[in-house]
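Its record is set out here:
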Amino acid sequence: MNPPTAAAATPLASVAPAAGPAYRRILLKLSGEALMGDDAYGIERETIDRIVAEIADVLRAGVQIAIVIGGGNIFRGVAPGAAGMDRATADYMGMLATLMNALALQDALRRAGVESRVQSALRIDQVAEPYIRGRALRHLEEGKVVIFAAGTGNPFFTTDTAAALRGREMGVDIVLKATKVDGVYTADPLKDAAARRYLSLTFDEAIVKNLKVMDATALALCRDQNMLLKVFSIFVPGALMRVVMGGDEGTLVHC
């Protein structure tokens, strides 16, 4: 059972789910860990197929979907060997891990009958398109899912920052961060039974309270560009659809 819901840090008027989607275009940030299921690392087929089924449902509802995917599930397997490695080199390895996840996600989408394109911030033209903003926008308008791999293409930046950056470039209505926890809490709900979920809070509150919503660079970018951010659990069945329909799910972070 989830911990009791806290009052919103900055109350917003409650929004009843609309007859149609509340958002026309979204950026879904998927962590690599979301693909692991109960495994220690790697990709669990049942888990990725379930996530893809939810993405397909949202796409059929008329929502344009861009995805930024992390690589922690793969890099976790080689992390012990990367200890003491040059940070830039390790970050490039992590970018390649995101590309592997992007290709796996694309394959799962294909098997589900969903057309998608992978665009990589690192040039690897034999397996993915290079990131080209205009082409990505055209894919979205044509109803294809666009999967952004390799983060920003630069070391020292997280895939959270890549999600904020690509979200702004794609002109999305909201960035959705899919996690293992159903929102942002006052403390770690797995360790503190008294932890309470925020219904909403501001970017400044998230930064000042160090709530680990995203890294500070990503939060500042979302704040400065006035982009909405919703944090929710991808492991709760139907949560993604409820979010895009404007339902009460997760935590909304706003300016």
